[in-house]
């Protein structure tokens, strides 16, 4: 507890004194006598203090103090009235009671508040803020159920009928008992039986709807700090165990090649043991809470029966009235418990939709896609003083003032050490990111002004580790295209020198490549990825180390395709053969283009590469 949490206390004392003064005067005279007036006084006091603190912006943590402060005295006197021998004790009005009552109320409220703060687990304030967010999320989820409104209205109508039936059945049950024990009146008895049957029918029909409501048989899902923290730990432990399995299965070849099967089994056993311990703690807490709940319920029933017997002996209550009260209490407790289950379950589980709404509420940082879709495109790419830094590291620029041109009919080789920004250049050219400085033009127009699908038909990329999807060879080559004939698919496969192994497959183009293409070799996957790019007949082709797994014949076939037409080709590679066949060589180092004289002065890989090219 921080000192700042105590700042609203002086204002609370002043506001409470003013409200008690009002309740002591004319306003208090309007309240009914006895316990109803005492509860009404506490309710008015609670609402007034809550509103004043809310308006003053001082509610904060003191809000948890208000219920025990305002309702503690009515609750105490109500429980005292249930004790035999204390029925005639008049309840004391707080506004007109001695100061000792007020001090006792404040003492009990502060004690309960201190115990709550002590037992609350760390981060309770943060979870309170999260619960407020959950309430807002719940309303957003309810808005999504608008199409089901007619069904919900019909369901609530049946529920209302069920509630009415459940409400009147105990009354007529007690009425029947009184009739049978007193002077028998056939008409009154027949009426009571008739109404009991009528309301039973309504209750049964309403039960068809109410039985569909979620039921939690063990514990109430109302927020309890210890249980919520434990459930969060269980979710994290399950996620950790799932992560161990996914990593082991996904990298099964690596696990076997290093002989680490026993280690992965041990890690998974440890993760499962952690889950088992947390489940045991959860079940133990649920069992203890259930035992406590049943004991309290049993104690309340014994106390009510004792009070009922005392009132029957005193002539203040009939046996039928006691039966009606017990039936009402049982039904009311069941309904309140169901309501608490439903509300608590909604508020607890609505957090699962928080991530979904976070993604829905995110504002894209990229500008909206443009509308340019010219019938012809040359493929002239211009980088004009382009700079870029990733959003998560804005103070670490990856590219610094790049200026170069990629011309149609030419192949440009982009080389540089790891981390120099080569793949970032390819990402900018695909409009995956926006430059933080300068301009990136395609045929003289900013690349962001082109229509999304049109741009990615004209600018395609093949990565070093191509991604294939579960499905046939045809589906992977024609991926993203609405219509593509088999002739066009085979032409692209032939240009990528993939037609040979495709024809050798058992089902040809219809052969399933497996999850992530695991049924194919590395070179075969790379050829399919190149064919997937070539089938679009792009004007700009980006090869990001895409020929590393190809043999000489395959690479020669790709060179033949590039030599036809006036396409713009950007190759990111370290291989000498690729650089030799390039019309333009660009060298990146630390996000900047290096001149030829700077390269020759150095003694790294690229100075030796250029020297070898000159000697050849």
From TrEMBL:
Keywords in alphabetical order: ATP-binding, Membrane, Nucleotide-binding, Peptide transport, Protein transport, Signal, Translocase, Transmembrane, Transmembrane helix, Transport
Domain ABC transporter: 381-615
GO biological process, one term: antigen processing and presentation of endogenous peptide antigen via MHC class I
The name this protein goes by in its record: Antigen peptide transporter 2
GO molecular function: ABC-type oligopeptide transporter activity; ABC-type peptide transporter activity; ATP binding; ATP hydrolysis activity; MHC protein binding
Transmembrane segments: 99-119, 149-172
Residue span, ABC transmembrane type-1 domain: 224-328
Family: Belongs to the ABC transporter superfamily. ABCB family. MHC peptide exporter (TC 3.A.1.209) subfamily.
Recorded GO CC terms: TAP complex
Localization (cell): Endomembrane system
Signal peptide: 1-28
Pfam families the record matches: ABC_membrane, ABC_tran
PANTHER family reported for this sequence: ATP-DEPENDENT PERMEASE MDL1, MITOCHONDRIAL, TRANSPORTER 2, ATP BINDING CASSETTE SUBFAMILY B
Membrane topology category: Multi-pass membrane protein
Origin species: Enhydra lutris kenyoni
């Amino acid at each position: 507890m921080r000192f700042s949490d105590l700042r609203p206390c002086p204002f609370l004392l002043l506001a409470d004194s003013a409200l008690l003064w009002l309740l002591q005067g004319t306003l208090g005279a309007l309240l009914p006598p006895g316990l109803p007036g005492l509860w009404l006084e506490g309710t008015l006091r609670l609402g007034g203090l809550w509103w004043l603190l809310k308006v003053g912006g001082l509610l904060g943590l003191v809000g948890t103090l208000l219920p025990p402060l305002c309702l503690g005295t009515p609750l105490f006197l109500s429980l005292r009235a249930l004790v035999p021998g204390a029925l005639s004790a008049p309840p004391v009005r707080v506004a007109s009671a001695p100061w000792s009552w007020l001090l006792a109320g404040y003492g009990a409220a502060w004690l309960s508040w201190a115990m709550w703060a002590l037992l609350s687990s760390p981060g309770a304030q943060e979870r309170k803020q999260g619960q407020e967010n959950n309430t807002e999320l719940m309303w957003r989820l309810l808005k999504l159920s608008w199409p089901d409104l007619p069904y919900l209205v019909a369901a609530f109508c049946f529920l209302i009928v069920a509630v009415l039936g459940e409400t009147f059945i105990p009354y007529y049950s007690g009425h029947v008992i009184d009739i049978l024990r007193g002077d028998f009146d056939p008409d009154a008895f027949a009426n009571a039986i008739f109404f009991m049957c009528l309301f039973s029918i309504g209750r049964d029909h309403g039960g068809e709807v109410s039985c569909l409501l979620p039921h939690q048989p063990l514990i109430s899902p109302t927020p309890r700090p210890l249980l919520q923290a434990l459930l969060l730990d269980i979710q994290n432990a399950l996620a950790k165990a799932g992560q161990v399995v996914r990593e082991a299965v996904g990298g099964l070849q690596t696990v076997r090649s290093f002989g680490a099967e026993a280690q992965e089994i041990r890690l998974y056993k440890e993760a499962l043991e952690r889950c088992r311990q947390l489940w045991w703690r959860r079940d133990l807490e649920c069992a203890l809470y259930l035992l406590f709940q049943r004991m309290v319920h049993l104690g309340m029933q014994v106390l009510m029966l004792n009070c009922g017997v005392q009132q029957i002996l005193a002539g203040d209550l009939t046996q039928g009235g006691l039966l009606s009260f017990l039936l009402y209490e049982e039904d009311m407790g069941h309904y309140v418990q169901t309501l608490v289950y439903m509300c608590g379950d909604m508020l607890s589980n609505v957090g699962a939709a928080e991530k979904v709404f976070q993604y829905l509420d995110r504002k894209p940082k990229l500008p909206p896609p443009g509308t340019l879709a010219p019938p012809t495109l040359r493929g002239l790419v211009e980088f004009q003083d382009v700079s870029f830094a990733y959003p998560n590291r804005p103070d670490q620029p990856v590219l610094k003032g790049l200026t170069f041109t990629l011309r149609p009919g030419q192949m440009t080789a982009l080389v540089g050490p790891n981390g120099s920004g080569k793949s970032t250049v390819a990402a900018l050219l695909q409009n995956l990111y926006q430059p933080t400085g300068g301009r990136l033009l395609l045929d003289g127009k900013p690349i962001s002004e082109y229509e999304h699908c049109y741009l990615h038909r004209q600018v395609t990329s093949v990565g070093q580790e191509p991604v294939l999807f579960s499905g046939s060879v045809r589906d992977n080559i024609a991926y993203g295209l609405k219509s593509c004939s088999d002739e066009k698919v085979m032409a692209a496969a032939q240009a990528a020198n993939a037609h040979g192994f495709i024809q050798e497959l058992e089902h040809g183009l219809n052969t399933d490549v497996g999850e992530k293409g695991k049924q194919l070799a590395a070179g075969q996957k790379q050829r399919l990825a190149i064919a997937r790019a070539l089938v679009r007949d792009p004007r700009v082709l980006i090869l990001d180390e895409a020929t590393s797994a190809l043999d000489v014949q395959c690479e020669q076939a790709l060179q033949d395709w590039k030599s036809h037409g006036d396409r713009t080709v950007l190759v990111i590679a370290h291989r000498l053969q690729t650089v030799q066949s390039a019309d333009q060589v660009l060298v990146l180092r630390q996000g900047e283009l290096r001149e030829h004289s700077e390269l020759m002065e150095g003694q790294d890989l690229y100075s030796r590469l250029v020297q070898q090219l000159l000697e050849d």
